[in-house]
Amino acid sequence: MIALTRMRLAGFLRGGRAVAPLITVLVILSVLYGGGPSLAMHAYAYSAVCLFPVLAWLTKLVLDTEPDAQRRLARLAVGPFREGAGGLLAAVLLASVVCLAAMLAPWPFGAIAPPRPDTAEPSTQTGILLGILAHVLSTAAAVTLGALSGRAVTRRVLPGVVVLVSGSILVIVLGLTGSIAPWLVPPVMATAREMGGDHPPNAATLLVLVVWTVLWCAVALAGYAGLRRARS
To answer: Is the torsion defined by CA of 214, 220, 225, 226 positive or negative?
Structure first.
């Protein structure tokens, strides 16, 4: 599986497919951190939300890089589980690199402000830890959505793009306050909302967000595995 993951990473990077997502990430980070300093918790909460559709797009590009015939041969050679897991692992590794760059980007430009004295604002260390959690949850949900929009599931380009775009929009719309069905989407917006306030979320709230993300990803990935098995 490691060799398969390396092959997919090499194909994605050498094929030039990484250029468009890279430019998009640079634009997003420039807009986010070009307007002045903010608390680490707030900055990273917004970063996790803004990167979500890009990470989902990145996942789709990684999974679609491999030709269909080669994917079927790999499935026969290593088995369906390892073949599918290899692609997801490649997407997770690339998404992790993007998230790491996003968390390091504001520091050289002084875009992270320390908490004001005599206030209840969270410390920078707390903001960094919460930012890591926000990006981990966003990455898990984004990789899952990107997998569902991959060619191995949708078979054609247009349906895959529809799944990717509509899924990204629904995550935002159904994640707004007062949504009629917030449980249909991962808590990307809910996480940013909880971390965008004046006080850091408590442990119970963080546990709810983590469990919510894990359950949503588990259900969606089970559907992804079933669709891949049926359409391969």
So the answer is: positive
